[in-house]
Amino acid sequence: MGKLLIYLKHYKKETVLAPLFKMLEAGFELFVPLVMAAIIDRGIGGNDTLLVLRMGAVLVALGIIGLVCSITAQYFAAKAAVGFSAELKHALFAHIQGLSYTEIDTLGTSTMITRMTADINQVQNGVNMVLRLFLRSPFIVFGAMIMAFTIDVPAAFIFVVTIPLLSIVVFGIMILTMPLYKKVQAGLDSVLASTRENLTGARVIRAFNKEKEETDLFQKKNDDLAHMQLFVGKLSALTNPVTYVIVNAATIVLLYTGAVRVDEGTITQGQVVALVNYMSQILVELVKLANLIITITKALACANRIQSVFEISSSMEWVQDPDSAARKTEDYIVEFEHVCLAYAGAGAESLTDIDFHIKRGETVGIIGGTGSGKTSLVNMIPRFYDAVKGCVKVDGRDVREYVMEELRSKIRVVPQKAVLFQGTIRENLLWGSPDATDAELWKAIETAQAKEFVEQKEGKLDFHIAQEGRNLSGGQRQRLTIARALVGNPQILIMDDSASALDYATDAALRQAIHRMEGDTTVFIVSQRASTIRYADKIIVLDDGQMADIGTHDELLERCSVYQEIYYSQYPKDEGVSL
Fold first, then answer.
1. SS3 of 407, please?
2. CA atoms lying within 13 Å on the CB side of residue 425
3. Are residues 268 and 172 in the same domain?
4. Contact (CB, 8 A) for 448 and 483
5. What distance in Å separates the CA atoms of residue 561 and residue 368, rounded to the nearest whole number?
6. Is 315 within the bounds of a domain?
7. Are 381 and 293 in the same domain?
8. Burial of 186 (0-12, 13-18, 19+ CB in 10 A)
9. What is the DSSP secondary structure assignment for residue 518, as one 8-state letter?
10. With contact defined as beta carbons under 8 Å apart, do 46 and 97 qualify?
11. Is the pLDDT at 72 greater than 90, yes or no?
12. What is the number of domains present in the chain?
């Protein structure tokens, strides 16, 4: 938690003023029992109506001043807490964006969402409550004890015994519940992961009639979370009754002691009332403090989870100085030199000894069975993952020598899953090049074979796309993601099985349009369809993470058994492919 407090640096004034005004309010509150004692002893006891009225006016004034101080403190505390939360979210989001795919895969999406939302909200509540009550409650408790000593020393020793007992209860329960709240948040991660999987995979679940199994699994995870929350809640709930028992027992002893000392004439009735009021103030503040401790315990558990994300550093280091590596221009735009790739935690390499060289303007097809490493291979070109052996070169330079912006500006990737963001078609396409004109956008749309349906949409480029493109068909989403990648004429275009939702005719028209594009764009096409990559300049055949062969369609059909198996499984030997 301490390391996260750096995000309060812009709210130093608020973090000082909020507890200051709360302590002012507490100070005025501590004078109330003394005023009440004066009313009882001197006003009512002395039959002095004027004094009663004057002291009553003082009570009203103390109440109004305390209210003003409380509202002011609330304002500053809320401003600091919300500002802290906003800066923390920005920092956490930026840090997550800076992590490589390896760390993101390891962390998992659900836990990052939980930490960005629920955990930060808990920390925000903790900061707010600390600024308001963390100093005020102890100030009232110890202030009441000191004020009790000014009234009667023997009676005040009851406070000396009571306060340590209460502290042991409050902090003991805090120590017990803190690790349990961490488990609760982990359980929340699991429930959120299950919810996310069910929402994103709803169609698959229904297609295989697995609704009952998924419902039962979610019910089990939800029940586990509920049981954990109930257990830690019951443990935390012990705070209030135990503190009430201790304080009320102390009040009984205080009343008995006070009655004896009043009978002896040592103290007055008003002073006994004042002592009881101070004990009541301690009770109220300790109840608040107990609830505060629960909130702080949750906040600390969540803060530690957030801090654990900040402590994860990216395994991928980028060159920061644009001129730190000499620029080279080579005939080959992409080179793999005996490259091996292993994912974090994997027992074996996903790619082994991949070696090839691609010239500018070539179209490269990548084909292989499921799990052969096709996506892994193309993900290494924009450096989403680093090679564990060998090196990947773009424009004659190792990708590890590039500044991130420079490398990624050369490459556009169309992923397997079409990803569109909520907004207009124009806003989505401008991701490819923020300065692109409408003419350039329409050119990319036409090349991606999306012009026909875009022109039919209301508003055309200003047609609003729902989150994840839910108001578009699968083929329409794929064509728009391809158009987005084409905006800006990238040097390298990677299409990772991105035409799977297109029919054969549209797929063929798309490949022909990309082939006719201006410039020397090098195109990598990952596909399961032999027809899609048949006319590529080079075809890379992968088999279980290894490169089985590389060559043209005719060459591979003659000598590569893996390619022959794939091709003839789709087209009988006596049939050709016209696409």
1. helix
2. 27
3. yes
4. yes
5. 12
6. no
7. no
8. middle
9. S
10. no
11. yes
12. 2
Please identify, among 252, 278, 310, the residue that sits at the C-terminal boundary of a domain. 310
Q: What is residue 577's predicted lDDT score, i.e. its pLDDT?
A: 46
Task: Tokens for 512, please give them.
Answer: 């022909």
Written as six digits, the tokens of 101 are 């795919």
**CATH code, 544:** 3.40.50.300
Residues 377, 299 within the same domain: no
**Helix 211-237 to helix 153-200 angle, to the nearest 10 degrees?**
170
Range of the domain at 133: 2-310
Diameter of the chain measured on Cα atoms? 120
C-alpha distances (whole Å) from 54 to each of 47, 50, 475 are 13, 6, 82
Within-domain flag for 203 = yes
Domain final residue pick, 258, 279, 310: 310
Q: Are 354 and 269 contained in the same domain?
A: no
Of 27-41, 436-450, 530-544, which range is least confident?
Answer: 27-41
Beta pairing class for 332-341 and 389-394: antiparallel
Task: Specify whether 365 is located in the same domain as 297.
Answer: no
Q: Which two tokens stand for residue 176?
A: 């017990």
Class of residue 466 by CB neighbours under 10 A (exposed 0-12, middle 13-18, buried 19+): exposed
Sheet of strand 538-543: strand arrangement? 397-398, 389-394, 332-341, 351-359, 546-551, 538-543, 363-368, 522-526, 492-496, 411-414
CB atoms within 10 A of CB 225: 19
Under the banding of pLDDT at 50, 70 and 90, the label for residue 8 is confident
Report pTM. 0.71
**Does pLDDT of 110 surpass 80?**
no
How far apart CA 211 and CA 24 sit, in angstroms, is 59
Together in a domain, 233 and 345: no
In angstroms, the CA 381 to CA 392 distance is: 7
Please tell me the distance from the alpha carbon of residue 454 to that of residue 316, in angstroms, as a whole number. Answer: 39
- Give Cα 345 to chain centroid, integer Å: 23
Residue 469 placed within a domain: yes
pLDDT category, 573, cuts 50, 70, 90?
low
Same domain, 42 and 149: yes
Give 170's pLDDT tier (boundaries 50, 70, 90). confident
d(CA 22, CA 68): 10
The rounded distance, in Å, linking the Cα atoms of 375 and 83 is: 41
Beta strand 546-551 pairing with 538-543: antiparallel
Phi and psi torsions of 346, nearest 5°: -80, 145
Residue 327 within any structural domain of the chain: no
pLDDT reading at 240 higher than 90:
no
Long-range contacts, 59-66 (Cβ 8 Å, 24+): 59/32, 59/35, 62/28, 62/29, 62/31, 62/32, 62/35, 65/28, 66/25, 66/28, 66/29
In DSSP terms, which residues pair with 391 in a beta bridge? 337
Please answer whether residues 490 and 410 qualify as being in contact, where contact means their C-beta atoms are separated by less than 8 angstroms: yes
